[in-house]
Amino acid sequence: MAADRRIEEITNRIRERSKPTREPYVDRIRLKGESAPKRTALNCGNLAHGFAACGPTDKARLTGDATLNLGIITSYNDMLSAHQPFETYPEIIRQTAREAGATAQVAGGVPAMCDGVTQGQIGMELSLFSRDVIAMSAAVGLSHDMYDAAVYLGVCDKIVPGLVIAALSFGHLPAIFVPAGPMTTGLPNDEKARIRQLYAEGKVGRDALLEAESKSYHGPGTCTFYGTANSNQMLMEIMGLHTPGSSFVNPNTPLRDALTREATRRALSITALGNEYTPAGLVVDERAVVNGVVGLHATGGSTNHTLHLVAMAAAAGIQLTWADISDLSEVTPLLARVYPNGLADVNHFQAAGGMGFLIRELLSHGLLHDDVRTAWGTGLSAYTVEAKLGDEGQVVRVPAPAESGDPKVLTTADKPFSSNGGLRVLNGNVGKAVIKVSAVKPEKRVVEAPARVFHDQDSLQRAFKAGELTGDFVAVVRFQGPKSNGMPELHKLTPSLGVLQDRGQKVALVTDGRMSGASGKVPAAIHVTPEALDGGPIGKIRDGDLIRLDGEAGTLEVLVDPAEFARRPNAEADLSGNEVGLGRELFAVFRRAVGTADTGASVF
């Protein structure tokens, strides 16, 4: 089915807007694709360095120009559950390449930090910037120009967007993203949230909290709630950078290993030396970007992708805006309810029909572009399947189930949970902001109340513990933007604000910081831009100012006389405490160079 008229209109305006940047980008990757890599053109010393550590067979193959060489970019580390499974992947990939008469080498590693570990800690101030570090690290690995294609091993929040930016910077190379999969289901996410709130109220101790957290995050794989990590995997599949059906298969299973071997073979089959040359820069075009945004809305995905998708698109010369994202939200029905906008986890989503069911539903209603180029071939309809393990250990695919296995988790486009998507852009005299409404009850989406202003999340926490946050209020937490301190996530606030909301108070959050994919039941206007340090109006708000956050109408206003508000000076904050410690001093250049949230908060 052809794409819906409204989808086509938004896609066309993105295409027209992007022509001055997209067309030169495509010309560059086509020119590079015609000439590289040709390893025999390297000087003998260069080439000898490139295969010095290889075994005899690989060394002999790399001496010539006809053997394919696959570059592996890995985010493996064994401290983080999501990335620990990647330890064995390089050997699986190397062996599979050898069996196909090719070679594979780890081109480089990239850092992988976990927002779950750094939440509310100093290290979180490096989190967003790690995306651009990852892109640069991968670029260093691929700069040796020894490779005919690349596979990218990454899962979580900033890792996949950083790897995509790198893959598009090397857009002449075919790219396949290889996931590790989610951990098996542990303590239900709503029970974990309940214990967190009890701890915030002082009703349970640290032992009970740690026990609950350990039962939630209990083994290898991604966290099972639908945050940025799992939104990443959805995006890679719906944008055609995964093999079909591979996003949400658990780690350390025969099917997971079979999918990794298959991805290796597929990467080798789409190089410039074959008949299906599929450069990554042509896979990710305007249609693929729109498909990604639609998928994000249809699943109630992470607010972080209002930053990441803009930055990822820019790496391919595509100019995506928050207005595009907002308009696509109005077109896209919400088809999935996975925590925090439901009780299920991502394993339940997979069992209910997963990505194959979701993609088929969206395609059947013209909400996705089917006429795209993917790493798997032509047409997104090839992804309306479920991957299974065959009798001989190979991947076999069957059509996605005709009906959802659980309509409370995954529904049809005819019977959506909501007529529009889970993300919305807010506009008003405070600036532009993003809100995730899919997890917020309709009666909680409009809050008009006095402001309580804080310059960091710890100050708000102290006020909560002292019992000072009484009555209805809008918490304004500013000087949390990328220029101020790297735009950390402010999840530490979620339990406290949730407690107050449950007590019957009307509460909301307005911040130039982030909340990510775990944005929950409290309405939160996040990513406010311009940020306070950049002279944004959020810096003019004072305690007691009446603020109206309307998640339905898409507005964010401070209800103060316009002339008086314009005359106010912007607040100042002492940010010297954010400049050193745990590596923050190394990122001063990032804080100075970073762009605005609505342009991706990127240093590029």
TrEMBL record:
Q: Which UniProt keywords apply?
A: 4Fe-4S, Carbohydrate metabolism, Gluconate utilization, Iron, Iron-sulfur, Lyase, Metal-binding
Question: Can the keyword Iron be found in this entry's annotation?
Answer: yes
- Quote the record's binding site residues for [4Fe-4S] cluster: 156, 223
Catalytic EC class: lyase
The free-text function statement in the UniProt record for this protein reads:
Catalyzes the dehydration of 6-phospho-D-gluconate to 2-dehydro-3-deoxy-6-phospho-D-gluconate.
Tell me the GO molecular function terms.
Answer: 4 iron, 4 sulfur cluster binding; metal ion binding; phosphogluconate dehydratase activity
Official protein name in the record = Phosphogluconate dehydratase
Residue ranges of domain Dihydroxy-acid/6-phosphogluconate dehydratase N-terminal in the record: 70-380
Cell membrane as UniProt keyword: no
What protein family does this chain belong to? Belongs to the IlvD/Edd family.
**Highest taxon, organism lineage:** Bacteria
An example of a Gene Ontology BP annotation on this entry? Entner-Doudoroff pathway through 6-phosphogluconate
Q: Give the EC number(s) listed in the UniProt record.
A: 4.2.1.12
Any Pfam family the entry gives: ILV_EDD_C
What is the native source organism of this protein? Answer: Aureimonas phyllosphaerae
Q: Which SUPFAM superfamilies match?
A: IlvD/EDD N-terminal domain-like, LeuD/IlvD-like
